[in-house]
Structure formats: C-alpha cells, structure tokens
Design brief:
- This protein is of the alpha/beta class.
- The protein has 3 domains: 38-264, 2-enoyl-CoA Hydratase, Chain A, domain 1 (Alpha-Beta Complex), CATH 3.90.226; 287-455 and 511-531, 2-enoyl-CoA Hydratase, Chain A, domain 1 (Alpha-Beta Complex); 460-501.
- The protein is built from 20 helices and 20 strands.
- Strands 1, 2, 3, 4, 5, 6, 7 and 8 form an 8-stranded mixed beta sheet that branches.
- A hairpin with a 2-residue loop joins strand 10 and strand 11.
- Helix 4 (120-136) runs parallel beside helix 5, helix 13 packs parallel to helix 15 and helix 17 runs antiparallel to helix 18.
C-alpha cells in the first residue's frame, strides 16, 4: 500500500481549530461525567443502602480488568423528558465489554434513574444494543433492575412495533440463532419485563430481588389474594419452588461472578469471516493533528487524506480510481490489522482535466458511480466498509439533473442499501440530505455509527434551511418590518441549528456515540474486533440498478 499524509505546517488558524476542539471535548467530558452520576448522590446512596451496586459499578465488576467498556448511547435522552426530570442515558447503560476474553453486549438498567423504568428512548437503546449483538454474533448479558414501563408515558412504550414487546421478540430470535443470552435479576423485574429473564438461556437471581407478572398490590386487587413480595416472586421462590431461575446468589458480587463463570463455560468458538490479516501498526502522524486539520465551525476546506493518514495502520492507503470522481475518496487500508474499505468525502475544491470545478463535500455523477462500484467490490471481497461523513449532499442544478444525478445517486444508495458486509459510519462534519443516505447514515444499517462533537445531521445546513423557510414565511405574511423579518430569520435558523447539533441527534439515538476525535482509531478498531465475531454473511443482491 502507498503511504499517505504529510507533515503539515500548522499555522495560526490551526491553533485556533485546536483550541476550539479542546473546548468542545472538555464540554463533552463534563457532560459525560454528569450522565455517569445517573440519578445523583442521594439515589446512589439509596441503591447502596439496599446492598446493591449501581449499573456502572456492576459493569465494572463484570468485565475483565484492564479492559475498556465500549459504551453506546451515553447521551440518549439528553435534555428530553424535562417535565419528568432528567433521564440520564435513558435509564439504561449499554455497551460491549470483554469477559474472559469474549466480547459481550451488556445491557444494565440504572435503578438510580426513575427506578430503572423504561421510556421510549430506553427501549430504542435496548433494541439497538440487541441488534448490534445479533448481527455481530456476541452473547448478551442483561443486568435487570427495573420497575417496568414508565406509566405516565405508556402510550410511547407499549403497543407499537418497536416498543416493549420487541425486546422479547428479539430474545426469541437471538436464541434461535444460537447466540447466548444471560439474565441476572438484581432488583425488581415486574409485569411484562418478567418475560425477559425466562426467555434467556441462563437466569441468575440475587437474594432480595424479585420477579413477577403482577406485584402484591395488583394481585390483591385482581384476585383478593394477600401475599408478600418475597413469597410471590423472590429468589427462593424462583429457585426452589417455581424452578424458573437457574442460580440464586447472595449479593451483586456473587451474581456477577456467576455470570463470568457462565461465560467462561460457553464454547462459543466458531469459524470467523473477518479476521486480522496483518499486525497492527500505528499511523506515522500524531493523532493530535486531527484537532488541527478541520475548522470546528465547518467553514473551511481540508484534505480528507490527512484525516485518513492519522487513523489507518502505518498511514498506508491504496486508493481506488484516484483521479476519477475525486469528491469521494475510496480505497483499502488496515486498522488494527483488519482489512477494510474506506469511502470518505473529500473537502477540497477539485479542478478537472478541462478546468471544470467540483466542490468538496458534494457528491457528483462520477463520484457516485465510483463509490457504488467500490461498495460492490467490498462486498465481493468480504471486507467491512468505513464511511467518513462530511457531506453537503448531491450536486444540484440544471446541468446535474440533465446529467442524471438522481439516477447515479440512486445507484450508490442501492449499493449501500444492499451491502451485506458490516459498515461503520463516522460523522466528523456535516451529514446533510441524501448525502447522509449515500454515506450509510442510520437508516442504512451501519453496524456502528460514531460522531465527532463537530458533527451536524440534518436535511440541510441551518443557513440554507433558514433562507428557504424564511422566504416561504415572508411571502405569506405580506408587508412586515425589517426588524420582524430579521427576528423570523434568526428564530428559524436557531431552531434548525439546535436540531442539527450532534447532541440533539445523540439524544435520539441517531448515532451510537459522540466520541473524542483523539479516540477515533480506538473506536474503529474495537468496532472491528466486535464485527470479527460474525460467523456468516449473505451474498448481496442489488435488484434493478439504473445505468
């Protein structure tokens, strides 16, 4: 492979970029720490007074020492549900941890947040975690400590396709695929939630925890029977009487150790598809450069090759059709020893052989054609694909329409839609309009989707959207003052800017995690580690392709 990247001569503006990035990163770190506090000090003390660990303490005690928990959805529900108080991390801690050397998806209810009750975002996050585990062929561990559905919002949680019942639907499908599922009931497990542990392969319950379809109060109201919680559905009942649970443990530590033992006894070795092919090699450049290349306000051009050079092994990249369709960079590289294809938006102005200009961040006919072919080649070769987003969308205008930009764009969208190799998406700048689709946005089933704090996800940029909506609104209002016009424009732009901010998207699980740019290589490498557990893949079919 060819070496890429240069020792950049960073000027004054690079210093400004760096300082601006550091402020963003610091803000994210502070917010992250607040979220990790869950329901706060009093709620933590209440949990500990019951002899129970918090969700994050449980995970720390479960995973192998000196390993890093790959969290997903930490910012879920951020600034949402304000009328009910905050719901940090949507009341669920989820992510991938290593147990006895095995990648496992861990889903833990946070009982310090609304007693671990499920909101719509709690469900969305849980279902996302199940999906990643199912597609990656890794065991799932459920650390259950939940009061069930958040009743004031039951209509957002109960009846629809991707509501509460989908968890149990997935339980059954995951089991049918031979993927181990272990439930550890460490607190309340009530109502419909009681189906989760009994649909798992192994069921551990802690003394003092309980599981029942209806609690004592509901039982009395329904059938007039008086029974205490422990007798109705405590640990002894379910291990000695009903036989529902497999193991009873005295406390959280013993239960977590039991789960570790169960994982150690699973013979889960299977033929793998995505193996390491080479030894991992660090890039030739300092990762801190990543904070000096991109203008955090996204107003300046830059060469995407310099970003790639600071992520891939040995800064080596074999570019595909280098001189054709240059607003999309396609090629092969290794990260952490794993082979992968890369599709990335180029952000410099391209001057063609005949002097024609192509704008960076825009997908043209030729770049769309090239990328579609490259995606299909990656599927032919069984290698995962990394998409790096900084895209304004497809080119518009008479010439583009006459040249068939919709047709060529559809070709790329078709290739991405029907791609069966694992896809990882990384949004570092804008991800606007149909460009988001072409670059494997959330709707296109990327195995993982990460974003930098600089990322923006929306139909179009705030300024462009404001101009469009402003003109429409002004035309309807008739004659108004310049001050009113200015206020209308600013209100529209502020709303759009707020909705395109990456924390807004992360709160709604449009991305799996907002990451520190300095950790980019780590997140991609760990994603490839998880993907490497996959043991089967189907051949892609593309249907009708426009030519």
């Amino acid at each position: 492979m060819s070496k890429i990247g240069t020792d950049l001569e960073f000027k004054e503006k690079s210093k400004l970029y760096y300082e601006s990035f550091l402020k963003m990163i610091d803000k994210m770190k502070k917010l992250s720490k607040i979220i990790e506090q869950g329901g706060g000090k009093i709620a933590f003390e209440r949990q500990h007074s019951k002899g129970r660990l918090t969700a994050r303490e449980r995970i720390d005690n479960l995973i192998d020492q000196d390993t890093v928990f790959l969290e997903i959805g930490k910012f879920a529900a951020h600034n949402m549900y304000k009328e009910y108080g905050t719901v940090p991390a949507a009341g669920v801690v989820a992510g991938i941890g290593i147990i006895h050397g095995q990648d496992c998806m861990i889903i833990a209810n946070d009982a310090t947040v609304k007693a671990g009750a499920y909101f719509e975002l709690s469900l969305k996050k849980t279902l996302r975690a199940q999906k990643i585990a199912m597609e990656s062929n890794i065991p799932i561990i459920y650390l259950v400590d939940s009061a069930g559905v958040f009743l004031p919002l039951q209509d957002q949680v109960f009846p629809d396709e991707n509501h509460f019942g989908k968890i149990f639907y997935n339980n059954a499908r995951i089991s049918s695929k031979g993927i181990p599922q272990i439930a550890c009931v460490m607190g309340p497990c009530v109502a419909g939630g009681a189906y989760l542990p009994v649909m798992c392969d192994k069921y551990v319950i802690v003394e003092g925890a309980s599981m029942f379809l209806a609690g004592p109060a509901l039982v009395k109201a329904a059938i007039g029977q008086e029974v205490d919680e422990e007798t109705l559905g405590g640990a002894n009942t379910h291990t000695a009487v009903s036989g529902t649970a497999d193991y009873k443990e005295k406390d959280d530590y013993a239960a977590l150790n039991r789960v570790r033992t169960i994982i150690s006894n699973i013979n889960f070795l299977q033929p793998l598809i995505f193996k390491k092919k080479t030894k991992s090699k660090n890039p030739h450049f300092d990762k801190k450069d990543l904070l000096k290349i991109i203008d955090p306000s996204l107003n300046q051009m830059y060469d995407m090759h310099e970003i790639i050079a600071r992520i891939v092994d040995d800064s080596a990249f074999e570019e595909y059709k280098k001189d054709y369709g240059q607003t999309l960079i396609c090629g092969h590289a290794n990260i952490g020893g794993y082979k992968l294809g890369i599709v990335a938006n180029q952000r410099i102005v391209i001057k063609g052989e005949e002097g024609q200009i192509q704008l960076g961040g825009v997908i043209y006919n030729d770049s769309s054609d090239k990328a579609a072919r490259f995606v299909m080649n990656c599927n032919q070769d069984n290698i995962p694909i990394l998409f790096i987003h900084d895209v304004n969308g497809f080119m518009v205008g008479k010439h583009s329409e006459w040249s068939g930009i919709a047709k060529d764009g559809a070709k790329l969208v078709n290739a991405v839609s029907n791609s069966t190799v694992p896809k990882i998406s990384l949004v570092i700048g804008g991800s606007y309009g149909a460009g988001n689709y072409a670059m494997s946005g959330r709707a296109y089933n990327p195995r993982f989707l990460f974003a930098w704090p600089t990322a923006k996800i929306a139909v179009m940029g705030g300024e462009q959207a404001a101009k469009v909506l402003y003109n429409i609104k002004i035309s309807k209002l008739g004659k108004i003052s310049d001050d009113d016009k200015k206020k209308i424009y600013e209100d529209i732009k502020n709303t759009y800017d707020k909705q395109s901010d990456i924390l807004y998207g992360a709160a709604r699980m449009w991305v799996d995690e907002v990451i520190n740019p300095l950790d980019t290589r780590f997140f991609i490498k760990r994603s490839l580690d998880v993907i490497s557990n996959q043991n089967q893949i189907s051949k892609p079919t593309y249907g009708v392709l426009q030519v």
